[in-house]
């Protein structure tokens, strides 16, 4: 082992530690690693930037645009609402949901599908008195199972495909992965509607659980009208002048003034006599208010969430996204109220409300926020990628901006045509997607601004940077060294042992450092292992491609798992309980199929 191998492996290990500890955004960590390799001369400038022009990475960008156009059509969510209907049994309804979800996810990015359907399913569950936790993890898992069926099913598939093309390999056809993944996906769906359904918890979502305990979280304070001897010192002052903005552990979310409700409350809002101030936060800190003259704590209050809003805004539940600009900043530092026209009532993480002053909470991916919004919230939130909004909008909400009927069907027919062209080898995936996006622009299915918003640039930066990191592993011989160690460890168990080691290692990386990064890091190891064993590299590459997407053990490794985390009221352990048997089914079935098709 020379110094270059030691250096590259050390930096890659440090990169993985930083990703696990969430030091900063994943794309910044991987890009920083790439920069180190560039500066130290491990990679030439040409090698470092090669990933930014990789066909697989660019195809992922096109996939984001196409998925956004289909989401805008509204056909998927309207179709699923009809499919669910009135349930004869919960398990039958679950099966009716999961089969088409897997089908859609085979040809579309599954993240917008899960974002779109999560509020619809929650509303349907509420109407039929069903716990959403029985449906939301299966929604995420079914979208993952569908995503591994085709080349365009997930960005991970396209990333590995792009790496193969870069190294002069043939790459995947549209249905190469289906030969292995179809049996695994079918068995996975059967598991989810039978054994998995019974294991799933009966949790309530954040809004429901908060509503039941709202008296524990909300304080009503009255600005006394008949203050003895003197005028009330708070009347006529702004919220900031009155010192009510930076209270320890308490957060002013609303002012009730006769028949008017003021929220979000601005620093410049003036206080009037008999105003009712609604605070949330750490109720144990109520003493700070009790000691202030002119304020009266209302006891026996019947405050509840549905009484907080007045029609101009509403209670909204959002999940902080992977690509949010708010990550690792406190709510106060983000100037949340001014930026989004919304006040934060509560923050949940790991299905537990964070008991702390709202403004001091540093946000992480997957945090679920309960907001009391003003009228401008949706417009402001829609211009960012900070949230997955999981509260369902009304059908006629102007920000839904759905396509008309003809354009909706045109977008679907164009997509189907693209799939046929790729299936018949008339066009490559990249060319077919490029043509589809151009048609969407020409016929105004989606605008350039909407396309820009749908592209997840942080994901593309992570992928492109990870390509460079993978090249460093190849170039220095580090990948060959790791492959040799894997083979040595698995040697007593034969070829099946090698397949198990590679698959498990990929799954572990996926759960810790995201699916795309896991696939790129495992790619050179898989290729070198195949070369050493004189096996068709396609066998090992299909194995790691499926393993990189088979993220069922935590909410962190895959975006769709994170989206349903808060809305389903899940605990981290719920993913392990339901996901471990599914992971074993996937592993065993995938290894058997790979062994049959390419090795024996």
From TrEMBL:
GO terms for cellular component: plasma membrane. It comes from the Bacteria. It holds the Pfam family TrkA_C. The keyword Transmembrane helix applies. It is found in: Membrane. GO terms for molecular function: monoatomic cation transmembrane transporter activity. Residues 205-295, 303-387 form the RCK C-terminal domain. It is a multi-pass membrane protein. PROSITE patterns: NA_SULFATE, RCK_C. Its main location: membrane. This is Di-and tricarboxylate transporter. It comes from Gracilibacillus ureilyticus. The lineage of its organism: Bacteria, Bacillati, Bacillota, Bacilli, Bacillales.
């Amino acid at each position: 082992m020379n110094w270059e191998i030691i250096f590259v492996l050390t930096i890659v290990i440090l990169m993985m530690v930083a990703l696990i500890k969430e030091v900063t955004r994943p794309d910044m960590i991987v890009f920083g690693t790439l920069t180190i390799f560039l500066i130290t001369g491990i990679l030439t400038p040409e090698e470092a930037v090669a990933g930014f022009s990789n066909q697989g990475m660019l195809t992922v960008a096109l996939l984001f645009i196409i998925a956004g156009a289909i989401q805008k059509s509204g056909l998927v969510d309207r179709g699923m609402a009809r499919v669910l209907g009135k349930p004869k049994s919960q398990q039958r309804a679950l099966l009716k949901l999961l089969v088409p979800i897997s089908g859609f996810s085979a040809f579309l990015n599954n993240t917008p599908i899960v974002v779109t359907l999560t509020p619809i399913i929650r509303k349907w569950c509420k109407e039929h008195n069903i716990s959403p936790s029985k449906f939301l993890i299966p929604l995420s898992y079914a979208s993952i199972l569908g995503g591994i069926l085709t080349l365009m099913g997930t960005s991970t598939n396209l990333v590995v495909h792009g790496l193969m093309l870069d190294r002069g390999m043939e790459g995947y056809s549209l249905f190469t992965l289906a030969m292995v993944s179809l049996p695994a996906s079918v068995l996975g769906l059967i598991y989810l509607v039978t054994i998995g359904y019974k294991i799933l918890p009966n949790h309530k979502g954040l809004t429901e659980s908060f509503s039941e305990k709202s008296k524990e979280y909300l304080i009503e304070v009255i600005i006394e009208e008949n203050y003895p001897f003197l005028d009330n010192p708070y009347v006529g002052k702004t919220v900031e002048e009155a010192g009510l903005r930076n209270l320890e552990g308490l957060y002013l979310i609303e002012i009730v003034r006769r028949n008017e409700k003021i929220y979000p409350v601005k620093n410049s809002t003036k206080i009037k006599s008999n105003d009712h101030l609604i605070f949330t936060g750490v109720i144990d800190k109520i003493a700070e208010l009790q000691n202030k003259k002119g304020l009266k704590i209302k006891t026996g209050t019947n405050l509840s969430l549905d009484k907080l809003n007045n029609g101009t805004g509403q209670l909204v539940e959002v999940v902080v996204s992977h690509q949010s600009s708010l990550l690792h900043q406190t709510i106060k530092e983000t100037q949340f109220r001014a930026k989004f026209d919304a006040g934060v009532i509560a923050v949940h993480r790991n299905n537990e409300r964070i008991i702390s002053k709202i403004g001091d909470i540093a946000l992480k991916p997957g945090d679920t926020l309960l907001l009391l919004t003003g009228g401008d919230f949706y417009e402001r939130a829609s211009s960012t990628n900070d949230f997955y909004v999981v509260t369902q909008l009304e059908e006629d909400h102007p920000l839904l901006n759905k396509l008309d009927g003809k354009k909706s069907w045109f977008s679907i027919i164009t997509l189907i045509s693209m799939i046929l062209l790729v299936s018949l080898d008339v066009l490559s995936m990249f060319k077919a997607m490029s043509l589809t996006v151009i048609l969407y622009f020409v016929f105004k299915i989606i605008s350039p601004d909407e396309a820009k918003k749908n592209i997840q640039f942080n994901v593309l930066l992570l992928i492109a940077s990870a390509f460079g990191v993978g090249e460093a592993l190849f170039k220095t011989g580090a990948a060959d060294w790791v492959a040799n160690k894997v083979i040595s460890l698995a040697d007593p168990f034969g070829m099946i042992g090698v397949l198990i080691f590679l698959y498990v290692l990929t799954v572990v990386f996926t759960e810790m450092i995201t699916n795309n990064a896991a696939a790129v890091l495992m790619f050179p190891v898989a290729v070198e292992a195949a070369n050493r064993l004189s096996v068709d590299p396609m066998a090992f590459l299909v194995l790691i491609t499926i393993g990189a997407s088979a993220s069922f053990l935590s909410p962190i490794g895959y975006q769709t798992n994170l989206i349903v985390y808060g809305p389903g009221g899940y605990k981290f352990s719920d993913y392990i309980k339901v996901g471990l048997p599914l992971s074993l089914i996937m592993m065993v079935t995938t290894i058997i199929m790979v062994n049959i098709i390419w090795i024996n």
